[in-house]
Design goal:
mainly alpha; globular
Length: 47
């Protein structure tokens, strides 16, 4: 697989498993770097 394909797969999992209808917090440990800094808040529907 290409790096671009791998990156798309990671982003797809992030949005479907973490930001999706059901939240899978375990996906964070699987795909996020230990030093990741998330600067976005929750979506407007959940504020």
């Amino acid at each position: 697989m290409s790096k671009q394909h791998d990156n798309k797969a990671v982003v797809g999992r992030w949005f479907t498993e973490f930001w999706g209808k059901t939240v899978n917090l375990g996906v964070i440990d699987e795909i996020a770097a230990p030093d990741m800094l998330l600067l976005a808040g929750p979506p407007p529907c959940c504020r």
